[in-house]
Specification:
CATH topology of the largest domain in chain A: Peroxisomal Thiolase, Chain A, domain 1
Order of helices and strands of chain B: EEEEEEEEEE
Number of strands of chain A: 11
Structural class of chain A: alpha/beta
Strand content of chain B: over 45%
CATH class of the largest domain in chain A: Alpha Beta
Strand order of the largest sheet of chain A: 3-2-4-7-1-8-11-10-9
Radius of gyration of chain A: 19 Å
Shape of chain A: globular
Strand order of the largest sheet of chain B: 1-10-9-6-7-8
Distance between the termini of chain B: 33 Å
Number of strands of chain B: 10
CATH superfamily of the largest domain in chain A: Thiolase/Chalcone synthase
Distance between the termini of chain A: 19 Å
Helix content of chain A: 25-40%
CATH architecture of the largest domain in chain A: 3-Layer(aba) Sandwich
Shape of chain B: globular
Order of helices and strands of chain A: EHEHEHEHHHHEEEHEHEHHHHEE
Number of helices of chain A: 13
Strand content of chain A: 15-25%
Oligomer: heterodimer
Largest sheet of chain A: 9 strands, mixed
């Protein structure tokens, strides 16, 4: 297995753009990544693209606008984890020696999708879905347990939203560039109790792209390549195997695989980008990813350890909450964010002297499982 | 004339003392499943026995939802109930005015109409505060 580097990163500005097509947004991200990598579209040898809704043959629809034809293209879906799945696909192609340069694209037009302004639904005949389960509902159930069993408060949850919205103000690509107070968050419309609107990620349209390559190619471009040192993707564990619903067996298994492959532990991380579709979820992931011991997540929140400028910034990009969540783009976008920090290119939200970062994503609702999929990448310079 | 149809077959029944949820149990390793599975997900054994679950359990967690799901208009409640059989069951919760939900409270199984499909009443289970 060969080492793989990331040499190009790009994304479109995230927001509500129902007039923009998936192809337009995809091209924006791809062109930015190519410019970043100082490569031409014709240099790409393999492409993986992900989207949930519009449009089919995604890679082809986008890249045919840019002069790319007759290369291997694979289009993947893994709900919100689709983008991560696309990056892992390209990583495998290069690591296994099939190609030297590849691009992973994630794109979503949420505002024109069938679920615009609705709750992410489980599959049609899903048992729990029929009985009232939706993604926000399931996370609200976790939040209630965090409160009544483990001492969390709604202010703890709101403070995650405050943090990530503050970070959004530092990110030129963010959908929301507005500071929120805890009160603003708690006074917003109730979605599924105790989760209020500003504790959930918005409907977002956008695209992201990363270009991966072999180390030989990387060395021609830069003396300080960013490498992917860990990659893991697992489907959800059965819920019946969870002893405690707030402890994710899936996330912990995936994290263990990624850390083992990378040869690092959570104590080595300088920053983390993780799935914060719901503010309460971020706290659980601190524990699942081993950023702190199980039960210590609330302390990390209250100590502000994960703010930009803190001991271990989490979601300095603004996360899904403030930067936004175009479902299949987020998994590509958050890997790109890690790369920016490792290259010292993250501007106002930069993690000083960042050397190792972790990008986590979670996706999909399936009744009998914790979640559809979890994907984790660890990058290092 | 409205007919009553179960939202899922083989999932619940009316017992002498009231409604009962029907799961199944692995003949080899004893793992209980609800809803029923075709074979045990732990040991892959296909010999499963139908199991009548207890009529009540303890509320693991809950949420009242204010946006629609596939069949329900808000507000409606959902949650997980920990059953004595060692499994956690997801279900709609019946909102009862003087009995606010609380983690750990006892909930009992009830059967009622869940939604309408054409002329038919689709019935299923809910958990109600004891």
């Amino acid at each position: 297995m060969r080492e793989v580097a990331v040499i190009g990163v790009g994304q479109s500005t995230f927001g509500k753009f129902p007039q923009k097509t998936v192809v337009e947004m995809g091209c924006e991200a791809v062109i930015a990544a190519l410019q970043d990598a100082a490569l031409r579209a014709k240099d790409i040898q393999v492409a993986y693209a992900s989207r949930m809704y519009d449009c089919w043959v995604t890679g082809q629809s986008i890249l045919s606008e840019l002069g790319v034809s007759t290369i291997e293209m694979v289009n993947v879906e893994n709900a919100c984890c689709g983008g991560t799945t696309a990056v892992r696909g390209v990583w495998k192609e290069i690591a296994d020696g099939h190609y030297d340069i590849g691009i992973a694209i994630g794109v979503e037009s949420m505002t024109t999708s069938p679920i615009a302004r609705k709750l992410i639904p489980p599959p049609k005949e899903d048992f729990e879905g029929q009985l009232g389960a939706t993604m926000p509902g399931m996370f609200a159930i976790l939040a209630r347990r965090q409160i009544e069993k483990f001492g969390a408060t709604v202010e703890d949850f709101a403070s995650i939203s405050v943090k990530n919205h503050h970070n959004g103000c530092l990110n030129p690509f963010a959908q929301y560039k507005k500071e929120f107070t805890v009160e603003d968050v708690l006074k917003s419309r109730m979605v599924c109790d105790p989760i209020t609107l500003f504790q959930t990620c918005p409907n977002t349209d956008g695209a992201a792209a990363v270009i991966l390559c072999s180390m030989d190619v990387a060395r021609k471009h830069t003396t300080k390549p960013v490498k992917i040192i860990g990659s893991a993707l697992l489907s959800g564990e059965y819920k019946y195997r969870q002893e405690e619903i707030t402890v994710s067996l899936l996330a912990r298994k995936t994290a263990k695989m990624a850390y083992e492959m990378a040869g690092v532990g959570p104590e080595d991380l300088d920053l983390v980008e993780l799935h914060d579709a719901f503010a309460n979820e971020e706290i659980l992931r601190y524990e699942d990813l081993g950023l702190c011991k199980t039960g210590e997540g609330l302390r990390m929140v209250r100590d502000k350890a994960t703010w930009v400028g803190g001991k271990l910034p989490v979601n300095p990009s603004g996360g899904l909450l403030a930067l936004g969540h175009p479902l299949s783009a987020s998994g590509v976008r958050n890997i790109g964010e890690i790369v920016w920090h490792l290259r010292d290119q993250a501007g106002a939200r930069q993690t000083p002297n960042a050397k190792i970062g972790l990008a986590h994503m979670l996706g999909g609702v399936v009744g009998s499982l914790e979640a559809g999929a979890c994907g984790i990448h660890i990058l290092a310079r | 004339m409205a007919e009553k149809i179960a939202f899922r077959e083989g999932c619940f029944t009316e017992g002498a003392d009231g409604p009962i949820l029907l799961g199944n149990k692995c003949g080899k390793c004893g793992q209980v499943f609800f809803p029923k599975v075709n074979f045990c997900f732990d040991c892959l054994n296909e010999e499963m026995e139908e199991v009548k679950l207890s009529r009540q359990g303890s509320l693991c967690s809950y949420s009242t939802c204010y946006m629609p799901s596939i069949h329900f208009e808000p507000p409606y409640a959902i949650g997980y109930v920990d059953m004595p059989e060692g499994i956690r069951v997801f279900g709609p919760l019946k909102i009862v005015e003087n009995k606010p939900f609380k983690v750990g409270m006892m909930m009992k199984v009830v059967i009622e109409k869940l939604w309408q499909e054409g002329d038919n009443d689709v019935i299923g289970y809910k958990f109600e505060p004891q």
